[in-house]
């Protein structure tokens, strides 16, 4: 087994976990939620797949690849609570969401409903899909601070109209880092006959996932965030009830080399010649993260996010966006900062203190989003707070 010689369980020495990553010693990386670097083991697993590919590309791509991808999908499916045959690998959540947009017939007057906590590119692609067909993207404001799950569901459902065709929401939101009550939202949406697409790049690992139980139509995620799989690995889950209607955004041969049986996945497995090694290394990333102990990972990284929340709130005096409960935020916390520009502050933290942390302008607010992965420490969070103390007026 790849991980058998790791000492996570025996030593529980989390502060030394950073040695498994190639992170530069002069950087305090509190930005795993944006781009999550892979540990050495995962990079090595990918390299080994690349060597096998290079050994006989025709044999690998035309005869072996479909079987290896099916195994990797099955492993990923067990991790996220979905049948492997209901998933396809895509390069990232953005590609997955574009496939959903290409597969959603919209007519003039139709509405796509989203929240004001969505990722900017997701809103942009739905706005474009709606504009093309005369439909409308409705961005419903979920006001902060959140108080209860029921309030979120009620507020969102109040924006549903007879013209709503699809509800799109983040499982864990990007600018605000809030865990939305996905199961409750899906239930309310299904009661109203609505189709649901969940934008989930931050959920795998941060949140225990059982996608089948959510009963959504689509779930898209990137594995190069919290799972720390290679960059360019993500997935799209499609519920069996809508598999026959999904459309590719890249059209190729429409069948998978080496497979004779037809499946809905055929259009998506072979999208022209590409490097499948990032997808094939996803099981190594799952194995790595599981070797840390998932519960322990969540407990520890939440404690760090909570530390950031407490110390930044003490510094600014500004109210956090959610109650102080694990169900509202996991390994990542977004905290309000005093008004000001976002980018110059992000640049200053990096240039003056070597701290990588994103600062967002979200509506009228300026937010700092602190991501805490296995390699982060309480001292790093303190360094961020000290730096903010220095640079904020
Ligand atoms: C909520 C959310 N959705 C979608 C994306 C897009 O992810 P990717 O760039 O991996 O496609 C991001 C990226 O940060 C995100 O935070």
Q: What's the SSE blueprint?
A:
Layout: H1 8-11, E1 28-29, H2 40-55, H3 57-80, E2 87-90, H4 93-102, E3 111-115, H5 120-133, E4 136-140, H6 149-157, E5 164-170, H7 182-191, E6 195-199, H8 211-214, E7 218-222, E8 234-238, H9 266-269, H10 277-280, H11 282-291, H12 294-316, E9 332-337, H13 343-353, E10 355-356, E11 359-362, E12 365-371, H14 378-391
Parallel strand pairs: 1-10, 3-4, 3-5, 5-6, 6-7
Antiparallel strand pairs: 2-8, 7-8, 9-12, 11-12
Helix pairs in contact: 2-3, 4-5, 6-7, 12-14, 13-14
The site of pyridoxal-5'-phosphate (PLP) has 13 residues, from helix 4.
Each distinct ligand: pyridoxal-5'-phosphate
Amino-to-carboxy terminus distance:
52 Å
Number of helices, where a helix is a run of at least 4 consecutive DSSP H or I residues: 14
Q: Structural class of the helices, strands and pairings? A: alpha/beta
Our estimate of the beta-strand percent is 5-15%
Multimeric state: single chain
Largest sheet: 7 strands, mixed
Give the strand order of the largest sheet, numbering strands 1, 2, ... along the chain: 2-8-7-6-5-3-4
Choose one word for the global shape.
globular
Low-confidence stretches: 1-11
Mean pLDDT: 95
The value of Rg in angstroms is 21 Å
Overall number of strands: 12
**Helicity, as a percent range:** 25-40%
Order of helices and strands: HEHHEHEHEHEHEHEEHHHHEHEEEH
